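ARCHIVE RECORD
Type: protein–small molecule complex
Small molecule: adenosine monophosphate
Source of inputs: curated submission
Record status: active
Notes field left blank by submitter.
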Amino acid sequence: MNFAELGLHEDLLAVLTALGYEEPTPIQAETIPALIAGRDLLGQAATGTGKTAAFALPILERLGSRGESTAPRALILAPTRELAMQVSEAIHRYGRSTGLRVLPICGGQPMGRQLGALRSGTDIVVATPGRAVDHVARGSLDLQGIEIVVLDEADEMLDMGFAEDLQRLLDATPSTRQTVLFSATLPPRIGGLARQHLTDPVTVSIRAERSAEESARVRQVAYVVPRSHKASALGRILDVEAPESAIVFCRTRLEVDELTETLNGRGYRAEALHGGMDQQQRERVLGRVRSGLADLMIATDVAARGLDIDRLTHVVNFDVPASPETYVHRIGRVGRAGRTGVAITLVEPRQDRLIANIERAIKRQLDVAPIPTVAELRSRRLALTAAALRTSLNAHDELERFAELVDELTEHHDVRAVAAAALRLAHLAAAGEDDEQVEIPQLELGRPKRDRGPARSHDRPMTRGPGDKRRANGPERLPKTGQRVRLSDKPVESGYARLFIGAGRRQGIRAGDLVGSICGETDLVGRQIGAIDIAEHFALVEVPSASADAVVKALGRSGVKGRTPAVRRERRPS
Ligand code: AMP
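STRUCTURE (tokenized, with ligand):
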């Protein structure tokens, strides 16, 4: 199935090609023709399945071109400002060639600008329910010309208490409108909403159908990463995993090309593989991968279809696949014929439901691992240098002429200093300067329980993943802001001292920042650092007692994340 078969206009097809979309996702294949035909629709699909394009493309197709009137013809309602902005940007991107105007109106934005924009006219409004109701009440949003309404993430909107607002907005639109309702879950309240507002709807559900027993031999790990950090997070994960041969799946050709460039810049031998390449180019790439000349292949699903590579040890989902079937299919490439393999999935914070769908399909939970910190990365690079040095120590015959140089140098310098300087040179030559300074935020994956209603993924606090138990003591154990700093109820681990840092969450300090600063300024490595608690205005960190004074001194000098908070041993309550 390709996009042309779904009944989209050529201009829209051209945009999709330019964006590198090679084929519709399952929800798009089912939804687009029905919506173009004007049907109402009830769709069960989570974010990441391609549902935005599934309703946005038919809206653009049906509206065609800019209307005469200033009043909008399509209304999309979304639970959060973040989602509304995303949807609005997506429609803007897809609809470039149509000239249709799209306007996001969300709470928290200046009213004046919204009023001006509404007055000058728009074709598609993407709004959060509360603000849309405000505008209707003021008479600044006229819904009489609405032809299509989309309720996106309807379950979230109901959970957030928008039921009445939705009712008022739908009542203000003509009853002849086309209505589309997307929801990740279908609790009875959604059924009620659908019965009340949809007419003879088509129902579409993207769910798991197949289980994958063969996936049992594959270690399946997920990393929760904000979109903007994905490429560098993947680089770090690959540095630590050191795969013999890996395939990285992306959604689009553009993503394939960008990621290939990034990973090559990081010293990998990465090859791109996508549907835009001819047979000869593909063969060349596969040849290089099979013979071990390339270690990474960055591919779209279409391009990787039918590929069979023996050496493959790792499959990476740079994006969560749009359906559990695709996930199962992708990871089926490793763990074959009794071999073991690793499947790595990068998950964006809002994609927890998509992961829940996959976990249901494969009948197990993915391990959520913390992204390697700057400190871990550095100690990994040092470990590689140390390993190279050990190999070099075995090459006795070739060491003699250097040994003479050592004799000469140690006349004036300490042997330890000479060895450290030599190591530094070797390390820089092999690993380069530590260009990685920025910590990637460690986020948690919510695992919503259907019967309790969905979790609010969009405002989940940033905390460490559960992978690192020793650092997982949450700030909730700490006393409230403003109180005298007391020890949290647990005793300091033996051999460790607890330090007080006079900056906390409010100052943007995260566990990774402390680990990065301490390891960057002292001899400690990440795993030597004990529990870290970050409170609103201060943080506590445990370090080996023997290094405590050195850490206090070093942090006092260097600061943390561009600040110079007070750093001292924690005063124990008497
Ligand atoms: P959504 O589920 O709407 O949040 O979409 C998830 C991501 O998939 C977005 O980054 C889209 O740009 C991308 N996407 C949507 N449809 C396709 C497609 N047919 N091929 C590749 N990527 C897509």
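CURATOR ANNOTATION: Residues 3-205 form a domain with the Rossmann fold fold (CATH 3.40.50.300).
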